[in-house]
Fold this protein.
Amino acid sequence: MDAAIRTASAMPVQEMGTETDTRDYLAHARAHARKAGYADWTIVDIDAHHVETVHWHEIIDYIEDPVLRHQATMYQKERIGAPPYGLNGDLGLRYQDVGGRIPHQSSRREKVDEPGVHLDVALTRRAMEALCVDYMVLFPTPMLFIGMHPQPEMEAVLSNAYNRWLAENVLSAEDGILSLAVLPFNSPDAACRTVEEFGANPNVIGFTVTSTRYKPVHSNEYMRLYRMIEETGKPIAFHAGYHWQDPSLATCNSFLGMHSLGFVWCNLVHMTNWVLNGIPERFPKLNSLWVESGLSWVPFLMQRLDDQYLMRQSEAPLLTKMPSDYMRESCFYTCQPLEKSSEVGLRATLEMINAETQLLYASDWPHFDFDAPRVIYDIPFLTEDQKRNILGRNAARLFNLPSKAGARKAA
Amino acid sequence: METVRVGSVEEFEPLPARKVVEIGGEEVGVFRLEDGFYAWRNNCPHQGGPVCQGRIYNRVLETLDAGRRSLGRRYDEERVNIVCPWHGLEYDIRTGRHPGNDGMALEPVAVQVQNGEVYVSL
């Protein structure tokens, strides 16, 4: 072989793991962003996550009740081998990383040496830089199960503590980091207090119902809550989750099967009740946002409800048009995880939900099925204008976010 | 097409071994298994993830008995997969193909060994 042959440069990261820097992990997303010219695009990520339990010892300081706060402090200080104080959940049934195959899902133990900057702020900024997003909405992770808490009052205690901790320690540090405050939905009065407390906070751009729960969203006890949220001008979001202990999902023997169904099932049920009980008719200015169920369930439910509704209109007398009309006009959706194995199916889905105005980009970073912005950019049948709408403009309109195109992403 | 030196054969130990390199803006993963070297572009066809920088796992199989009842899962001792660290998609290091979808495959890069040195051409 010719002695003049050059030697290739070894990549600095040979194998990615839990200690890999977010910016190295997502370097290919960043490279795509440069190539695509995202510097003058507004990109809004409606659903990213942090692991709030890493900072549970901080969060419990925000518990209002002095007795519970003391209990929590003692528990966090002395209890060994236990999950975070007061938090329900699925303990060790966390198989999202597929046995270590997807390290970023397990943990992000990368080095962060930024004195005075909260760890979650530093990690979120890195993800925003790598994904080239201007705004990133942070959701909790283990707390997505909190709707199944056996003590409704504890759902309220912990949700309130979390919302306050997030607002003071994370949202206040960076105007691009946003939140949809977690509603203690099993206690409607407490949920109303959450709206009162955070309705005027500019970094709290809406309110979240964690969808894993068995409360009917059309119950009369929620009407005051919906009115209050409508009056803030901010949307209500239903963030999906799974519940493996649900009797039907308990027949699934793999995380693959359970997760495929579970993250859709909860929002299928809530959307059905939401529409058939005429919530969009009762609160016409209240926008709803359906998060992390993907999209393929929407055309299914549109067709299913339309079919049945025509035969049984007397059971949904508040409706003045087809269920699918409400789902297309007053409901917004996040794209992740974008089911794209069939271009025919994807095209039909995007047309049926009127993606040009109703679809919002979400990464779900750092979870195993996250989507980088290129999942939208690479869709071959969308125009650039449609891609810009989905990746940012629709969210900017829904949440009244000022454009930041070009401000962050010149590098 | 340019031929570039990746390293010496001795660098590729213990097995399975891998070296991910950058050549003029292109990223390539070179792997060594018991029967030789394989090279693939570091670009997952799923979403463009850095597939060659993932972890290496043997392929998982499920064993059935004569009555077609499942006896559980086990690792295939021969077939070795590279797993994209972004989303977990697995590809056979020898064939570059996804074990559950023949139509999904990594882009190959020519690799050769001469005088104890490993080269790729692209």
Observations:
- The CA atoms of residues 112 and 410 of chain A lie 23 Å apart.
- Chain A touches chain B through 33 residues (CB under 8 Å).
- Chain A has one domain: 22-399.
